[in-house]
Amino acid sequence: MEAAAISRVQTLVESGLSQIPSSYIQPPQHRPNPSPSASGGGIPVVDLSSAAASADLPRACREWGAFQVVGHGVPLRLLDAVRSSGLRFFESPQGERIRYACDPASPASEGYGSRMLARDDGVLDWRDYFDHHTLPESRRNPSRWPHFPPSYRDVMVEYSDRMKVLAQRLLRMISESLDLPSSYIEDAVGEVYQNITISYYSPCPQPDLALGLQAHSDMGAITLLIQDDVGGLEVLKDGRWVLAQPLSDAIIVILADQTEIITNGEYRSSQHRAVVNSKQARLSVATFYDPAKTRKIFPAPQLVTESSPLKYKEVLYGDYVSSWYSKGPEGKRNIDALKI
Ligand SMILES: O=C(O)CCC(=O)C(=O)O
Ligand SMILES: [Fe+2]
Fold it and tell me: Where is the Fe2OG dioxygenase domain (predicted)?
């Protein structure tokens, strides 16, 4: 119990430290930029309710790999309920939170945790999280989720279902934009494994030395993310880190590694990270849409041509996940290892 409590960033901050422990100090080349750039308009915003979406979405996929969607039909009431339910958990007393501690020995175990990776020699992220296993329904056990506020579990179930539908709609648009049958990516992924991770980034006394979450690409097919109005998600574009402007009704779409493989690199997964600040805690909610571990993922044969040869080896998704957790992300090194 004590050891689990000590490893929480939130607990460190509550102890009133003015300097961060050395285990959280990033090497100079990984530290955040002194003034993050939101110039040039930031990441694109695609209005799914507009006719322009069919041109804007492929452009955003090709040029950025990450974009915000509005006009998506998910009620703002639900987005706000998810954010406020998550915040309620992290604002509850530590004694309450620790009852939901995940198993620190197994990566991606459900519950309240702080360390993403199995290895413990890397620099630590300035982040605590709550991970929910939400799909398939056989993995969904709301009794393991916080029991307060009383609506917490119903809100997460409704959100899980809405995010599945939205992810599938986006995957269909992405497939069609590459002249693939509309269900192509959905079928290639197979039965969806969905996790919802609420990240809580406590204020950091030395935000220029740490990262909330190190640079990575997501390992599954597509990630849908909402954030509060603090801001801290940065996307790498042409060698520059660009801040994703907080928009309360937007959902951020992040293309992940399996989509890069399936599209044979036509669309690339987005490298992103979270920065922290000294004044305000920040909350985000990421919904991951992943294949089953038994699924083999490979480039669509229709996208392999003389002018665009095969770029990635086939991979068993379970092997991809194990390697990601054992080596760590370090940008996009895991997908880079599959390049032919
Ligand atoms: O908190 C954020 O904005 C980023 C979260 C993220 O990238 C992740 O959980 O994979
Ligand atoms: Fe991510």
Answer: 191-291
- Cα separation, 52 vs 185, whole angstroms: 22
Tokens of 157: 């179930």
Residue 232 contacts residue 225 (beta carbons within 8 Å): no
Residues around ion ligand 2, judged by CB within 5 A, are 218
> Among residues 256, 232, 252, 249, which one has the least CA distance to residue 321?
256
Best of 128, 199, 269 for a ligand 1 pocket test (most atoms within 8 Å of beta carbon): 199
Taking the CA of residue 232 as reference, the ligand 1 atom at the shortest distance is: 3
Task: Tell me the pLDDT tens digit for each residue of 133-186.
Answer: 999 999 999 999 999 999 999 999 999 999 999 999 999 999 999 999 999 999
Sheet with 272-274: strands ordered across = 213-216, 272-274, 233-237, 240-243
Nearest atom in ligand 1 to the alpha carbon of residue 199 is 1
Residues with CB under 6 A from ligand 1: 197, 199, 213, 218, 225, 227, 233, 272, 274, 284, 286
- Whether 86 and 132 have beta carbons less than 8 Å apart is answered as no
Q: Which atom of ligand 1 is nearest to the CA of 244?
A: 3
In CATH, the number for domain 32-336 is: 2.60.120.330
Residue 192 half-sphere exposure toward CB, CA atoms < 13 A: 24
Of 254, 253, 255, 269, the C-alpha closest to 311 is 269
SS3 237: strand
**Regions in the chain scoring below 50 on pLDDT:** 1-6
Q: Whose CA is nearest to atom 10 of ligand 1?
A: 218
> In 3-state terms, what secondary structure has residue 1?
coil
pTM: 0.95
